[in-house]
Amino acid sequence: MAVAYLRLLLSIPFLSRKQMEQIETSIQSIFNRIFESDDIVLRPEMTAFDIEGWDSLKHIRIIVAIEKHFSIKFKASEVVSVKKIGDLFNKVREKMEVASGPK
To answer: Is 103 exposed, middle or buried (0-12, 13-18, 19+ CB in 10 A)?
Structure first.
């Protein structure tokens, strides 16, 4: 049982801290471009209510830009489940971990 669990753990890909920082930096750049502002500093606990001008159209633009930048696709249910910036960081991380996992 312990051997099977260890094999499972070893098969799960994990992104390095540097890779996670690169994801967050890229998402920050996407937000800056879409909102045409360098004044926005993303924090995991932030929501759309914390960023002036974040409406449904900007939300779609953000998701599309992230999908294009990272070459990933979100399901509609994943997009709807994103409530905070930290959720968005985690969804991208999860997608990137799956993409970089064992083939």
So the answer is: exposed
